[in-house]
């Protein structure tokens, strides 16, 4: 039987306790992957995967996460840089704290996640990295100058790293979800949600599981072996 060949691969997912990250962890477990995930809060913890409390903005903590995963599960084959936040506001009202929190988590947090592992992937000659960016990073969005900037930067990071990493057999891709039903959408008012849905050709929000399948495809050493430096959009045709 055909398989994504992720059985027994070790994959680290950041922010795996809730939303899209939790769906990715759940799917990878079903595919037989050895999954580790980080969580900051204690909400919605998952069973059957190695859960490590860590804040992605803490460089030392993320170094310790990589060490712990490799000690307990083995060499890390895949990373899903999923943890992210939004602090939306119109630009003139955006505080320095809201700017910094979003850039520190969504961009520096990915640097902190990847840095302890990428050199090891190079040495081992294999690896697959998936960064969760956003439709907002490609087309912008009202009230999201900070968030869109962080997500656009993430596309630049993954495309550049893909060029560098190719010679080591390591692939780096991004997934750009459209609007997905998670806690992140809870801050959006009913009226705005209605407007967004009316703009989506599928006339509905996406589900976390629909993002998870795209991530599994990009992690797979067989299904996406010649794919790197791309952005896969999971957005119900809500294109830029
Ligand atoms: P949620 O708010 O449901 O979950 C966010 C996850 O990120 C939680 O697990 C949270 O942990 C974790 N996290 C946040 N900050 C940190 C931090 N500093 N350190 C460690 N973990 C942290 O969001 P989604 O599931 O919707 O979003 C997941 C990713 O998908 C994000 O990168 C988001 O930008 C992106 N995305 C989401 C879209 C959507 O419509 N939902 C659309 C496009 C992209 P904790 O529970 O501890 O807070």
Structural domain tally:
1
Q: From the 3D structure, determine the CATH topology.
A: Rossmann fold
Biggest sheet descriptor: 7 strands, parallel
- What Rg, in angstroms, do the CA atoms define? 17 Å
Heteromolecules bound: NADPH dihydro-nicotinamide-adenine-dinucleotide phosphate
Poorly predicted regions are none
Q: Can you list the strand order of the major beta sheet?
A: 3-2-1-4-5-6-7
Task: Tell me, briefly, the overall form.
Answer: globular
CATH class: Alpha Beta
Oligomer: single chain
CATH architect. name: 3-Layer(aba) Sandwich
Task: Summarize the topology.
Layout: E1 10-13, H1 19-30, E2 34-39, E3 50-53, H2 59-72, E4 76-81, H3 96-114, H4 118-124, E5 127-132, H5 135-139, H6 145-165, E6 170-177, H7 190-199, H8 208-219, E7 231-234
Which key features would you list for this structure?
240 residues, alpha/beta, Rossmann fold, 7-stranded parallel beta sheet, 8 helices, 16% strand, globular, binds NADPH dihydro-nicotinamide-adenine-dinucleotide phosphate
Can you offer a commentary on this structure?
This protein is of the alpha/beta class and about 240 residues long. It has one domain: NAD(P)-binding Rossmann-like Domain (Rossmann fold, 3-Layer(aba) Sandwich), CATH 3.40.50. The chain contains eight helices and seven strands; from the N terminus they run E-H-E-E-H-E-H-H-E-H-H-E-H-H-E. The protein has helices spanning about 20-30, 60-70, 95-115, 120-125, 135-140, 145-165, 190-200, 210-220; strands at about 10-15, 35-40, 50-55, 75-80, 125-130, 170-175, 230-235. Strands 3-2-1-4-5-6-7 form a seven-stranded parallel β-sheet, sandwiched between helices. Helix 1 links the parallel strand 1 and strand 2 (about 35-40). It is globular. The termini are far apart. The model has no long low-confidence stretch (mean pLDDT about 95). The site of NADPH dihydro-nicotinamide-adenine-dinucleotide phosphate has 30 residues, from helix 1, strand 2 and helix 3.
């Amino acid at each position: 039987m055909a398989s994504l060949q992720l059985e027994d691969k070790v994959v680290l997912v950041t922010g795996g306790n809730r939303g899209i990250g939790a769906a990715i962890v759940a799917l990878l477990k079903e595919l037989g992957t050895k999954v580790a995930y980080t969580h900051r809060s204690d909400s919605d913890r998952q069973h059957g995967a190695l859960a490590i409390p860590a804040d992605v903005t803490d460089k030392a903590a993320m170094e310790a996460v990589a060490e712990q995963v490799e000690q307990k599960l083995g060499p890390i084959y895949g990373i899903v840089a999923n943890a992210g936040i939004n602090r939306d506001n119109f630009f003139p009202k955006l505080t320095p704290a809201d700017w910094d929190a979003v850039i520190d988590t969504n961009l520096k947090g990915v640097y902190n996640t990847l840095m302890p592992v990428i050199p090891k992937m190079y040495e081992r000659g294999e690896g697959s990295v998936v960064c969760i960016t956003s439709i907002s990073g490609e087309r912008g969005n009202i009230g999201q100058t900070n968030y869109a900037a962080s997500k656009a930067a993430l596309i630049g990071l993954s495309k550049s790293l893909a060029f560098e990493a190719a010679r080591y057999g390591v692939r780096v891709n991004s997934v750009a979800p459209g609007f997905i039903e998670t806690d992140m959408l809870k801050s959006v008012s009913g009226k705005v949600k209605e407007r967004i849905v009316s703009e989506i050709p599928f006339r509905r929000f996406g589900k976390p599981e629909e993002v998870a399948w795209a991530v599994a495809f990009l992690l797979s050493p067989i299904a996406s072996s010649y794919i790197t430096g791309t952005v896969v959009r999971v957005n119900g045709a809500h294109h830029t």
